[in-house]
Amino acid sequence: MERIWFQSYEPDVPHSIDYPQKSLYQLFQEAKDRYKSNPAVNFMGGELTYKELDSQVKSFAKALSEMGVKKGDRVAIHLPNCTQFPIAFFATLALGAIVVPFNPLYVAREMEYQLKDSGAETIVTLTRFYNMIKEVQPKTDLKNIIVSNIKDYFPGMLRILYSLAKEKKEGDRVTLSGSDHSFTELISKNAGKEPPKVDVKPNDRAVFLYTGGTTGVSKGAILQHRNLVANCFQVKSWCTDYRPGKEVVLGVLPFFHSYGLTTILNLGLLNGAKLSLLPRFELDMVLKTIDKQKPTIFPGVPTIYVAINNAPNLEKYDIKSIRICISGAAPLPVEVQQEFEKNTGGKLVEGYGLSETSPVTHANPVYGRNKPGSIGLPLPDTEFKIVDVETGDKELPIGEVGELCLKGPQVMEGYLNMPDETAQSIRNGWLYTGDIAKADEDGYTYIVDRKKDMVIAGGFNIYPRDIEEVLYAHPKIMEAAVAGIRDPYRGETLKGYIVLKEGESATEDEIITYCKDNLAPFKVPKLIEFRDELPKTMIGKVLRRMLREEEEKKNQ
Predict the structure, then answer these.
(1) Is residue 100 in some structural domain?
(2) Which of 114, 315, 485, 547 lies at 20 to 30 Å from 368 by C-alpha?
(3) Residue 183 lies in a domain
C-alpha cells in the first residue's frame, strides 16, 4: 500500500509521533501536577479534582501494597463506570501490578473462568456482586476481596436518598466477612500515605483485556504500558483541535472494554479532561447529563447515537456542546451520522479497533473527507495490508477482498497462556485480525465481512460458541446454533436455533429463561426457533452462514 493514506490525512495530523517512554501512571502524575484544581471525575454529581483523585489513588495503592500486591500481580476490577474505577485502575498501575477488567454483567461461571485464567488474587467489586464473588472464591486464587457501594461517591443528598429508597432493592446492603475489605475504609485508613515507588517500564504489562475467541473461549490480550500510551497519543493527534485541560468527556462506554478504557479513561485523564461518568446507558440519564455537564467529546457506538436521534423529547435538552464523536464497534449508517450531526452541530465519524490493538487503528478524518461505509484511514504509525484468506501470505492489490492485517505500536504483546493462538494471530510482526476487508485508492478501508463468527449486538462483541456451549448443557437440547441476524436498533440480535432430543418438548420462554440464568444479559438470545435439523457441512460442522442467509431471505 506504500502508505497511500497519508495523502488523505488532515494537514495537522502527523504521519508519526514521538511517544513518551513513560508508564500510564507517570503520565497521570504529570497531568495531576498540571491540572491540580481542575475537575477530573464527575459521577452522579459527585466530583473530584485531579488533586483529590490523585490523593485517593495513592491511598488505595498504599492499601494494596500493605495487602501484598506487588509488581506483576493481577488485580481484577469488577466495576461499572464510577469514580471507584479510575482510583482502582491507577492505584494498581502505580505498583506495577496488572489490571484485569471484568464486565459487571458476568455471571458466576464467566467470573470463575476469567479469574482462574488471569491468576488474579485481588478483586475490587461492588456490594451487589459480593455474594457471587464469595461463591466463586474457593474455586479461584482470590485472597483479597475489596468491596465498594455504588453510592460511596454520590453527593450527600443523593447518597441519603439512595440509602433509603434503593440500596436494599439493588442488593447493595451486605455484611462483609471479617477477611474482606471496605474500599472507602481502606482509603481513609491510608489517607496521606505514599505508596512504594516502583520502577515501571514502557514494556511492562499494564492490562489483561479479555476478548472472545472464534472457539468461544475468552482470550486475555496482553497490553503493555507502551501500547496503551501510544494509542492515547494516536487518538489525540487524530482529533486535531483536542484541548488539554478543557475537554469534558462523556463516559457511557464501559471501561472494562478497550474502547472506553482508551478513549475516555486514559486519553481523558492524561490530558486534564473532566470525565462525566454514567454506570450504564439510559437514554433519559444520558440526555440530562449532556444538558447539565456540557460534554465536548462523546465516544460511542451506533446504537447510542440512534437512540439519541430518536428520543421523543430531544428538543427539551441542549446537546449542542458535543464537538467530536468517534463511533466504533459496529458499522455507522450514514443516515444516523447525518441526523446526529444535525442535532448536535458536532462531528460524528466512524472508526475501527480491536481489544488486541488497544483498541483504535483506523478512523475517518474528523474534519476531513469521510467515506460512508468505510472505517477510514490508519492512525499515525499504523500500517495495514490486505492478504489472501487461504494462506495469509500473499498481499492483495487495491480493491481486492482479503484478511485485514495490522502493524503499529498499539498492537498487543500476545494472548495470555495461549502461545498457539498468539502465533496464529501475530505473524512476522503483523496482527491478523480475522476481519475481511478491502481498501480503495486513497487508503480508506472497508470491512466486508467477519472471518470469525462474532456477533455485534448493541455494541457488545458476542461469540456464538460461548452461548451454544450453555445451550448444549440443557438436558432437553440435542443440537444448538446461534447466529446474529439483522436488527435495525441493535445492529444485530441473537437468535438461537434448537433441535430437541427425541420425545422432549420446550417453549421459547423456557430456553430464554435458562440462558438468563447462565449467561450475561447481553449474550441471551432474543429469539428461539425450534427445528428438526441444522444445516451442516459434510463433516458435520453447523453452517451458521446458511442460517443467516435464510433469515435474510425471509426479510426480503
Answers:
(1) no
(2) 315
(3) no
Place of cell 488471569: 118
Say how far apart CA 277 and CA 42 lie, in whole Å.
6
The answer, yes or no, to whether the previous bond of 378 is cis (omega within 30 of 0) is: no
Cα atoms found within 13 Å of the Cα of residue 179, Cβ hemisphere only: 7
User: What is the grid cell recorded at 337?
Assistant: 451520522
CATH code, domain with 465? 3.30.300.30
| Cα distances (angstroms) measured from residue 34 to each of 28, 112, 271, 437 | 10, 41, 9, 43
Query: Residue 542 carries which DSSP code?
Result: B
Residues 6+ apart with CB under 8 A from 168: none
Could you list the beta-strand ranges (E) of 50-171.
Answer: 74-77, 98-101, 122-126, 144-148
Domain count within the chain: 1
Is the C-alpha dihedral spanning 339, 345, 346, 349 positive or negative? positive
Task: Give the C-alpha separation, 249 to 277, whole Å.
Answer: 8
Residue 74 gets the label, from left (phi > 0), alpha (psi -120 to 50) or beta, of beta
**CA Rg, the chain, in Å?**
23
432-464 core/surface letters (b: 16 or more CB in 10 A; e: else): bbbbbbbbeeebbbbbeebbbbbbbbbbbbbbb
**Selection from 359, 352, 94, 104 nearest residue 223 by Cα:** 359
Partners of 198 in the β-ladder: none
DSSP 8-state symbol, 533 = -
Residue 85: inside a domain, yes or no?
no
Region 10-22 average pLDDT = 98
pLDDT in tens, 509-544: 999 999 999 999 999 999 999 999 888 754 345 778
Q: Which residues contact 45 (CB under 8 A, 6 or more apart)?
A: 154, 155, 158
Q: Which amino acid is at 515?
A: C
Residue range of the domain that includes 544: 455-554
Give pTM, 2 decimals: 0.85
pLDDT digits (tens, 9 = 90+) for 431-465: 999 888 999 999 999 987 666 666 878 778 687 77
C-alpha cell at 448: 466486508
3 state DSSP class of 69: coil
Residue 376 is given by DSSP the state: B
Phi and psi angles of residue 261, each rounded to the nearest 5 degrees, phi first: -60, -45
Beta strand spans in 338-469 (E): 347-353, 360-363, 377-378, 383-387, 402-407, 414-415, 426-427, 430-439, 445-450, 455-457, 460-462
DSSP 35: S
- Could you tell me the three cell numbers for 487? 436488527
Beta bridge partners of 320: none
Provide the β-strand partners of residue 473.
none
How far apart are alpha carbons 465 and 80 in whole angstroms?
26
